[in-house]
Specification:
It is a single chain. By secondary structure, this protein is of the alpha+beta class. It has four helices and 14 strands. A six-stranded antiparallel sheet has the order 7-6-5-4-10-14. A hairpin with a 6-residue loop joins strand 11 and strand 12. The longest helix is centred in the middle third of the chain and has 22 residues.
C-alpha cells in the first residue's frame, strides 16, 4: 500500500499522541489494586469490559496493563500503542511469570505468542499500512480493512502458548485450543494499537496460607530468541541473531529502536486475588 499523506498525518499524530501520553501520565507504573474481573470478561483481544481503561502504565516496557481475577481464573490485559513495542511483542512475545510469595511452589511462566522452532515470527507493517486521505469514511474503511487483515494473520499464525510449570505441556507449549484452560489472544484495533489478553486457571497457581492469596509476578516483553551479534553490512553494521532453528535472522542497524527490540524489558509487582 502507499505511504501516508504527510500533511494529514502531521495533523492527526500530535492529537493522538497527546491523548495517549496524557492517559499514561495519570496511571501508576505498577498496579496497586486487586480487581474483580467483570462477569462478561472474555479473552478476545479487546479491553471493552474495563471501558478501555487500564490499572497501570509501565514506562520501562511502555505498555498499559491490568491484572484481574474471577473465582477460577487470573487475567492479564496488556496494550501497546508504540510501533516498536508492538513489533517487539508480536515477534518476541510477552511472558508472565508467577512466583509464590513464600517460595513454596514452582514458578509458572506463560508466553504468548510462542513460535515453533522452525517458524519465522509474524510481521505487521505499522509504519505505512495505508494512505490517509481527506475522506473520513474512506480512512475508517481502510483502517478497519488493515486491522481485519492483521487480525486474520494472527488467527493463522499465533497458534501456540508457551508454558513452563505445567506437566501436561509437551515441549513447554500448548495449543491455543488447549483443554487445560489457558487462553490467549492479541488483536489490532482501528488505530493499530495492539491489545493482548491472557487467562490462566487459578488451579495452576501454587497457593499457600489463607485468603486473600498474594503472589509476586513479572511481566517481560521478550527480546529475540537467540544470541545477538553485530556484523558488517553494505551500509554499515547490522544486528543479527541466531534463531532456534540455527538460521541467521536480521534485526537491522544498531539503532535505539532495534536495540530495544533485541533485548528483553520487564517489571515486577505483587498481586492479591480480589474477593468474589
Amino acid at each position: 500500500m502507499k505511504n501516508f499523506n504527510t500533511t494529514v498525518f502531521k495533523l492527526i499524530l500530535p492529537a493522538l499522541l497527546f491523548t495517549v501520553i496524557a492517559n499514561a501520565q495519570k496511571l501508576p507504573k505498577i498496579q496497586t489494586a486487586s480487581i474483580a474481573a467483570p462477569v462478561t470478561i472474555k479473552v478476545d483481544g479487546k479491553n471493552t469490559e474495563f471501558g478501555d481503561k487500564f490499572q497501570a502504565f509501565n514506562r520501562t516496557t511502555e505498555v498499559y496493563y491490568t491484572l484481574s481475577n474471577s473465582a477460577t481464573k487470573l487475567y492479564l490485559t496488556v496494550q501497546a500503542t508504540e510501533k516498536n513495542i508492538i513489533r517487539k511483542i508480536t515477534q518476541n512475545g510477552i511472558s508472565l511469570t508467577i512466583m509464590p510469595k513464600d517460595k513454596s511452589g514452582a514458578k509458572l511462566v506463560v508466553t504468548y505468542p510462542q513460535y515453533g522452532k522452525k517458524e519465522a515470527p509474524g510481521y505487521f507493517n505499522l509504519r505505512d499500512p495505508y494512505e490517509i486521505v481527506k475522506d473520513t469514511v474512506k480512512n475508517n474503511y481502510l483502517a478497519d480493512s488493515v486491522a481485519a487483515a492483521y487480525n486474520a494473520n494472527i488467527n493463522n499464525r499465533f497458534k501456540l502458548i508457551g508454558v513452563i510449570g505445567v506437566a501436561s505441556a509437551e515441549d513447554s507449549t500448548l495449543s491455543v485450543f488447549n483443554s487445560e484452560g489457558f487462553k490467549a489472544l492479541g488483536r489490532f484495533d482501528r488505530k493499530l494499537f495492539y491489545t493482548y489478553e491472557l487467562a490462566i486457571p487459578l488451579s495452576y497457581i501454587a497457593r499457600s496460607g489463607e485468603a486473600p492469596i498474594s503472589f509476586k509476578y513479572n511481566i517481560m516483553i521478550n527480546g529475540v530468541p537467540g544470541e545477538v551479534r553485530t556484523v558488517p553490512g553494505g551500509r554499515g553494521n547490522r544486528m543479527v541473531y541466531t534463531a532456534p532453528d540455527g538460521s541467521e535472522r536480521n534485526i537491522g542497524g544498531p539503532s535505539p529502536d532495534n536495540m530495544s527490540f533485541a533485548y528483553p524489558s520487564d517489571f515486577s509487582g505483587e498481586y492479591t486475588l480480589a474477593k468474589q
